[in-house]
Amino acid sequence: MSKTPSLLSGCNGKPLAYQASRKVNCFGCGTSIAMNEQAVQIPMKKGMRVGKKIHCLKCLSDILEQTKKDMAKIERLIPLA
Ligand SMILES: [Zn+2]
Q1: Is residue 7 part of a domain?
Q2: 62 C-alpha to center of ligand 1: Å?
Q3: Which of 6, 21, 33, 42 is surrounded by the fewest CB atoms within 10 Å?
Q4: How confident is the model at residue 1 (pLDDT cuts 50, 70, 90)?
């Protein structure tokens, strides 16, 4: 059971468009991404290293959803005038 990362936690940079040049597996859900299929590369910190992890577009949308939730949490830290 892994928590969906967001771009504010778990990721270490912005996603970049990535077109698979060979068959790869999505880092998030493990689904296979065929050659020439559109995906994204997201820099993620693992221990001391930052690796660019390939994600499918479905995982990207989950990560964006999680990012919005994290943003809402942060926005609540600012008292409304
Ligand atoms: Zn995926």
Answers
A1: no
A2: 9
A3: 21
A4: very low
Distance CA 58, CA 12 (A): 19
43 in a domain, yes or no?
yes
What is the 81 CA–ligand 1 centroid distance (Å)? 40
Measured in Å, residue 19 CA sits from the centre of ligand 1 at: 14
pTM: 0.85
**Number of separate domains in the chain:** 1
Question: Is position 10 within any domain?
Answer: no
| pLDDT tens string 65-78 | 999 999 999 999 99
For residue 58, the CA-to-ligand 1 centroid distance in Å is 6
Nearest one of 70, 50, 57 to 28, comparing CA atoms: 57
Q: Is position 2 within any domain?
A: no
Cα 28 to middle of ligand 1, angstroms = 5
- d(C-alpha 50, C-alpha 65), whole Å: 23
Q: What is the span of the domain harbouring residue 34?
A: 16-75
